[in-house]
Please model this.
Amino acid sequence: MLSYLLKRFALMLPTLLGVLVLNFAVIQFVPGGPVEQLMSQLSNREAQLGNQGPRRALEPQQVEEIKKLYGFDKPAHERFFQMLGQFARFDLGKSFFQNKDVWQLIKDKLPVSISLGLWTFFISYLVAVPLGVAKAVRAGSRFDLVTTLLILVGYAIPGFVLGVALLVIFGGQLQWFPLRGLTSANWEDLSLMGKVVDYLWHIALPVTAMVAGSFAVTAMLTKNAFLEEIRKQYVLTARAKGLSERQVLYKHVFRNALIPIITGFPAAFIGAFFAGSLLIETLFSLDGLGLLSYESVMRRDYPVVLGSLFLFTLIGLVTKLVSDLCYVWVDPRVKFD
Model:
């Protein structure tokens, strides 16, 4: 096990380096960088101050000062190795346009992502897994057919489209739920119970829109895993010994059938935090990590783009390792040697 862990940690370094090299190289060829954007803003401002005269090009000295401000006065390879040195110290840099550390920006957006991620994860698993078990036990029944139809319909509707429908019907026409934000304007003045109710009131629609897709996948995966285990020989043997159907299901089938689901817990849990839906956040005016990433790409805020990419890639690699280790915890037959 120790040798396996050391090998995996050793493989993480070239993987992480490859991701950073690829994205850094792509950035060098993307037009409209921060230097060009600031130059355009300054030219527009000078034109406005000059009584709407034609836009005047900036002086070469001003252009060099702007490049030096953003660090683009150095060759690309020097900037790349400087970035690697910062990342090795877990210094993600400072945003070009927001004048904040990347760490601080991520911390500011985390509450929204945590809210969406936790509710999406727990609702998807706590409801979908029992539903999948019930569907497997009653495979072919009317209950199975009806729930399968509802699940597939929910899965076929994109989360953004479902969010628009929920917002129009329950937020606009019926006015049962708020249209934007995680809390009301008077949230600070509410009591503890009032804050909880207000928060749940705001989070209901966006979480419902995000749960639809992952809920369907988890439920059908659970059903198929249980059906595969129920048909195996050891289940017939357990039944032949006189065990009740409940004992067969929860003592023998349950653990083996949940192997593909439990081993996906770490990835699903972390993904729920850092893979939030950009469209859902935009639709419900939720300022989370998804919206931060999109705005950073559009504004060419490279420290935020590369810093968040480094952090999320590192978390993803560690999560993948934890997922693999879960196989040993769930199924002792797995040996990494």
